[in-house]
Specification:
Elements lengths: L5 H7 L6 E2 L7 E2 L2 E5 L8 E7 L4 E2 L2 E4 L2 E2 L2 E8 L1 E5 L5 E3 L4 E4 L5 E5 L5 E7 L2 E2 L2 E4 L5 H5 L2
Antiparallel strand pairs: 1-3, 2-5, 3-4, 4-13, 6-15, 7-14, 8-11, 8-13, 9-10, 9-12
C-alpha cells in the first residue's frame, strides 16, 4: 500500500513509529525512525525501522566471522532492497529478505511511500557493520 499520508500509514504500521533515528542519521538520506522491539542484551536485536518517502540508508555490509547477517520483515508501506551488482527488489508488507554476512546492500522507502520493516540482527561471532557510500540520487531515481 503506497501512502504519502503519514496518518494513513500509521494505521498500517503496527509496531509504531518510534523516535527519530538520530544515532544513525549520518548513514541515511532523509528521515528515519527506530522503535526497538527487544534489547541487544536479550541475545537478539529486533527494531522496527520506519522510512519517510524517499528515505534510504547508505550501502552497508554486515560482517561476521561466523553466523551473522540481517533479516528484514517488511510490515507496512513500500520500499526497495538492493544488493551490489544486482537489480533492486520491491518490498511490500509480508516480504522477507535474508541478507547473509558480507553482502553489500541498502534498503529504504520508495519515493512515493512511507515504509517500515523489522530489522533482525542475526547473532554470530565477530559481527560488525561497515557503513559505505550513500545511494546516489541518480541510482535511486533509476528505480
Amino acid at each position: 500500500m503506497k501512502s504519502l499520508d503519514q496518518n494513513a500509514f500509521a494505521k498500517q504500521n503496527i509496531f509504531g513509529l518510534g523516535a527519530e533515528n538520530t544515532a544513525y542519521a549520518q548513514y541515511f538520506i532523509g528521515q528515519s525512525f527506530l522503535n526497538p522491539l527487544t534489547r541487544p542484551e536479550d541475545g537478539i536485536f529486533l527494531g522496527n525501522v520506519t522510512f519517510e518517502p524517499g528515505c534510504r540508508n547508505n550501502w552497508h555490509i554486515h560482517h561476521a566471522q561466523k553466523g551473522g547477517g540481517q533479516i528484514l520483515l517488511c510490515t507496512a508501506g513500500e520500499g526497495w532492497y538492493q544488493e551490489a551488482g544486482k537489480g533492486a527488489v520491491s518490498l511490500t508488507p509480508g516480504t522477507v529478505i535474508v541478507i547473509p554476512p558480507e553482502i553489500k546492500h541498502w534498503h529504504g522507502a520508495k519515493r512515493d511511500a512511507w515504509f517500515s520493516h523489522i530489522a533482525i540482527e542475526v547473532p554470530g561471532e565477530g559481527c560488525s557493520n561497515e557503513w559505505c557510500e550513500p545511494v546516489t540520487d541518480e541510482e535511486y531515481a533509476g528505480l
